[in-house]
Design a protein that fits this description.
By secondary structure, the protein is of the alpha/beta class. It has two domains: 196 residues, Rossmann fold (3-Layer(aba) Sandwich), CATH 3.40.50.620; 84 residues, no CATH class. 33% of the residues lie in helices and 15% in strands. The protein is built from nine helices and ten strands. The chain has a six-stranded mixed beta sheet with strand order 3-2-1-4-6-5. α1 crosses α2 and α6 packs antiparallel against α7. It starts with 9 loop residues before the first helix and ends with a helix.
């Protein structure tokens, strides 16, 4: 006799949806790639891809768009995790884009390589002929995400146009593209930051150590705590000091802020996230705080 009261937890539903999306894209596209930064969202996405095809290996490579301004702990984790899974790693280097004249490095106190990633990413997608790129975006990050589709169309220039989004009825995804076009795919669209942390706890996933409280030399700029690193261009009026901090997200170290925190364990981090009312990007990303339209502008340029 079959049970009729079988219920799935919220995490089970989210996991099943994401695995369905990953399998659908792997079946419909010829050369998908998973964008992997070593951050918590891409770590969860990598686990979902692992589950989607287990016991077979993940059938597509992972790609890191490397600004060259990284947290060492994240790069160490990236290389070790990729080696454990036996996945091919593609590193798209912003430094190589600068050296070849494809982009011009910013100067000044608030210079960052974050926006330069767009050209590097699009060049790598074209060179490797990727037709679908999995990204770890969540719709709770900021307002522009709510306009996104799960399978989000990019034109031959890699640009996103919110008016050109295709309808997605139920779980039916439009995967048709012409040569030179590609799509970004967001399996975590319906996840929140708290869901990510709950899943990390359930799956017992290892994260880079910077996600937990530690002592770091930082300085304050525009109300954010930035790591005192050579490429952060700290001014004489920005004194450095030791603080107990952790990171809610990882990215270009020159513009990714830390938050003061004593949350040194997974349970403490989850309690802290559950209580906060400030979004992850609003608290930790200097390049997305300039205006409410900053993220949408970057999406239209082709990076997100």
């Amino acid at each position: 006799m079959q049970r009729s009261d079988y219920l799935l937890s919220q995490l089970d539903v989210l996991e099943a949806e994401s695995i369905h999306i990953i399998r659908e894209v792997a079946a419909e596209f010829e050369r998908p790639v998973l964008l992997f930064s070593g951050g918590k969202d891409s770590i969860v996405m990598l686990r979902l891809a692992q589950k989607a095809f287990w016991p077979a290996p993940i059938p597509f490579p992972v790609m890191h768009v490397d600004t060259g301004h990284n947290f060492p702990e994240v790069i160490e984790y990236r290389d070790r995790r990729v080696a454990e899974l036996g996945v091919r790693l593609v590193v798209a280097s912003v430094q190589e884009s600068i050296d070849s004249g494809r982009v011009v490095e910013e100067t000044g106190r608030r210079a960052s390589r974050n926006r330069l990633q767009t050209v590097t990413l699009l060049d790598a997608i074209e060179a490797q002929e990727f037709d679908a790129a999995f990204g770890g975006a969540r719709r709770d990050e900021e307002k522009a995400r709510a306009k996104e589709r799960v399978v989000s169309f990019r034109d031959e220039f890699g640009q996103w146009d919110p008016k050109n989004q295709r309808p997605e009825l139920w779980n039916l995804f439009n995967t048709r593209i012409r040569r030179g076009e590609h799509v970004r795919v967001f399996p975590l669209s319906n996840w929140t930051e708290l869901d990510i942390w709950d899943y990390v706890r359930r799956e017992e996933l290892e994260l880079p150590s910077i996600y937990f409280a530690h002592s770091r030399r930082v300085f304050e700029r525009d109300g954010m705590l930035l790591a005192d690193l050579p490429y952060a261009n700290r001014g004489e009026d920005e004194p450095a000091f030791e603080a107990t901090v952790r990171y809610r997200t990882v990215g270009d170290a020159s513009c990714t802020g830390a938050v003061k925190s004593n949350a040194a364990t997974l349970e403490q981090v989850i309690e802290e996230i559950a209580a906060t009312r400030i979004t992850e990007r609003g608290q930790t990303r200097a390049d997305d705080r300039a205006s409410e339209a900053a993220m949408e502008d970057r999406k239209k340029e082709g990076y997100f």
